Input
Amino acid sequence: MEMTFRWYGKDDPVTLEKIRQIPGVTGIVSAIYDIPVGEAWSREKIAELKKTVEDAGLRLSVIESVPVHEDIKLGKPSRDRLIENYCQTLRNLAAEDIRVVCYNFMPVFDWTRSELDHPLPDGSNALVYFAEQVDKMDPINGELSLPGWDASYTKESLKEVMDAYKEITEEDLWNNLKYFLERVIKVAEEVQVKMAIHPDDPPWPIFGLPRIITNMENLERFLKLVDSPYNGLTLCSGSLGASADNDIVEMVRRFGGMGRIHFAHCRNILLREGDSFEESAHLSEKGSLDMYEIMKAYHDVGFDGPCRPDHGRMIWGEQGRPGYGLYDRALGAVYLNGLWEAIEKNEAKG
Ligand code: DNO
Output
């Protein structure tokens, strides 16, 4: 297992120099943020990102994300050209020896929360999803803009794309995903880049938009759409864990055992009544997930891919990108590495 950390590029207040000082973190998870969604990433830009990371003494381990254009998810005629661009990006990433790509297939909105700085009793702030607040949210006219959301939409273009989804059923989305995978995975195999879909967060439909990468059964279905080792998962414990019906340990054992988890997102969440949750600290006792059992499952299946902590709280007065400050994620990385060391040493003793 390689411990990694997400870095949002040169504008990220959490610099590579700081990340390098977190004990046990060797890999960087990043992306190119100034290329419009749908265009191919040039080899030069990829090489530049890689060099920046390597000059700081770290390794560019994963691209998160190469975003999928909405026209592909909607199955529009323009998708063929956009998929070809996507494939070209994969070829260029492979040419720079980048081997894992994370992406998602959530219509319009990436991960969604109702509040970004909800105060917790210990004085820290956390991201929360309170269903009754989300139900009242108006994504088109509302004020909330989440760090994972595409900021390039105008009100009009957002309305247009949301309207386009009114015609799209879950089955249509499955078909469009299959169409995408049938083309992209062929190239991923050729150039040996592991594709790792990120589950939907939260794992249920929001704002009337369909969501399909949500549970065990659907993950099975996803992996069968194109049954290739290059068609794999980013197993995000927090995203899937937001539904109490999802057993993360079982998922890690099942899909990790098949060699289909290419990237592990390990974070804890505290479930509340009625499809609501808080993003707690990583420590098992602070949330609803047993992080020890999750790491043990990764260890048992022989997982040797990249892993990262995720969505830290804001602690010690830190200001910054919600979920992506330095301190709490660093604590998360060190904690996960601590669990891993203990598990490894225990196993070695027999
Ligand atoms: C949230 C992240 C997601 C993830 C994308 C992958 O913090 O896990 O934004 O990067 O869904 O495409």
